[in-house]
Write a structure and sequence with these properties.
It is built from six helices and 25 strands. The longest helix is centred in the middle third of the chain and has 16 residues. InterPro entries: UBQ-conj_enz_E2-bd_prot (IPR019193).
Amino acid sequence: MPPSPLPSRIALYAELLLNIRTVTLFASLRTTQTRDTRAELSADGSRITVSHEGETATIRLPIKAKSGGDAALALPAQPASKELTLRLQIQEQDGSDFLAGAHAEARKANLVPWDGASLNAMDAVEIHCKACGSVLLPAEKLREWRDLPNENWAEMMDFWHCHKPDEHHLHDHTHESAIEKKGYAAGNRLVAVQGVGFVDLASLLVAEEDCQGGESVPLHPESLTCKSCNHPIGATDRTANSLRLWKWNISIRPSTSNSFSPSTYSTQKWVSARLLSLIENTGARKFHIHSPLPSSSPDSTNPPSIPSLLLWVFTPDLLFSSSSSSSSSSSSTSSTSPSTPSYPDPSSFPTRAMKIFYQHQTYHAPQPGDRENVGVEEVSFPEDVHLELETVLQKSGALLPSGARTFREWRVGLLERFDVGEVRALDK
């Protein structure tokens, strides 16, 4: 077998900022550019090839650039550098609505798969463990899925309870029966209903009797793991007598289709969706990310502390492509190890993402007299999600040109997010 070719020492990265419709190409060279260093745009405007000292690297652009055929691009002549930057005019094909029209309007939404409507559209939904593929929730257990409102659903429940016009005329016992069937009641309390699943942005809430494949951990009864492989799948919710299955730890498929591979999404996209939801609801762009604190000893005088991340969502929406070799990330795939983050493949369609500035910090429970960090939202994720988030940010930073991997005291990384067309109907 002939030896594999050595990877090019030229690293290319391109990003499309959707709000200003500009494609910027970054090229990192091992040595300073020369007169023979060239950048050429393909005839169809979809790819750029950079040549330097006998080596070449090609990148597929996030969107086509204006081109009149194969053309050499003018590189900055002075000062000579190892880092090259080019800005390109974009070209939208006739009939395309990528940057305008319905497609662009759809892109403005925080797209999140597996809502109540899409799950109800299936004949029967079967929930699997993402790690091992075992069945957590058989299809025959649930007859209906209902969406919970946004982050403030608890505050909204009293309003619905008190102002629902079609129930004011009911007698007391009939009214109470209707409440039990709906799964919520006054006092901001969600009540699990056997045979009904509740859906929010990041989780599925089901009755304990319906989830046959999960079990609580003896030493941590609030944690829920898969009975088959012991991998975390969610948490117990005693206030609602329910189990909360994290969407990033499960896969879903119609039970009526044996040939349909389970649908699952990378953890980082669920994290992005959560952050985008917080941006919409609070206006914050900085988030202190941490896992739940461990229990402290009653005799301990020092509060427990854990590693955390301070995130700044610098660019909420961009498309990028990279010449760096990496494994392909797919929107909906068969179950894979949840501990293996996915990264964009340069040969695949450019990836939608957020640009994240981040710092490593330490988190501890707020103490009396602590100064409030105004403008920073506290966000808790399970420990496995926190660790994967840190890994994703570090590895995605390697896709950026070396000069763009830090900004003052911040490190820079990328978080993939859900895109139009990726959130497909599961019943098809």
